[in-house]
Amino acid sequence: MHTNKPLIVLFAAASLLAGCASSLGGDAYSRDEARREMRVEFATVDSVRIVQIEGTKTSIGSVAGAAIGGVAGSSVGGGGKSSTVGAVVGAVVGGVAGSAVEEVATRRQGIEITVKLDNGEYRAIVQQDEGENFQQGERVRLVKGSSATRVTR
């Protein structure tokens, strides 16, 4: 029975990358934030603009890409030294490509919400765009945890 090893490794890598995506929106809380007291301030939306939130850059993409590249590269040549060189080159190129693929696959569209607090100060908060459609002049809440602030209604 002939198996297509590069295809199996590629499928495994794609599954790992899909698991890396997480929400950075106003309605998403980490496990550490649950059941913790947070400070709430009220503000008025001054402006909203679309931004990009860069993707994650963990070693998962590099390792998966190196594995795929190594397997694919080892099939180059007729065996022996040329297969070894092909595996090494394939692993290096695959690692670089895998890292880039991971960053692009986990990149998200975000919004930068600039608000004016009741005391006259301005703050800007970036969060994932989840279709909240905040409008200039709208009253919102800033929910402040120990590591993050989010804008909600």
Write a structural description.
This protein is of the alpha+beta class. It is built from 3 helices and 5 strands. The protein has one domain (5-152). Helices cover 37% and strands 27% of the residues. Strands 3-2-1-4-5 form a 5-stranded antiparallel sheet, with no helix packed on it. The mean pLDDT is 76.
Mean pLDDT: 76
Largest sheet: 5 strands, antiparallel
Strand adjacency order, main sheet: 3-2-1-4-5
Q: What is the CA-CA span between the terminal residues?
A: 58 Å
Strand content: 25-35%
What overall geometry do the principal axes of the alpha carbons give? Answer: elongated
Low-confidence stretches: none
Which H/E pattern describes the elements?
Answer: HEHHEEEE
**Range of helix content:** 25-40%
**Which structural category fits the helices and strands?**
alpha+beta
Helices, by number, come to 3
Please tell me how large the radius of gyration is.
22 Å
- State the total count of DSSP E strands: 5
Secondary structure elements and pairings:
Layout: H1 5-20, E1 39-53, H2 59-74, H3 81-105, E2 108-117, E3 122-128, E4 139-144, E5 149-152
Antiparallel strand pairs: 1-2, 1-4, 2-3, 4-5
Helix pairs in contact: 1-2, 2-3
Features of the shown structure:
153 residues; alpha+beta; 5 strands; five-stranded antiparallel beta sheet
Summarize the structure.
By secondary structure, this protein is α+β, with helices and mostly antiparallel strands.
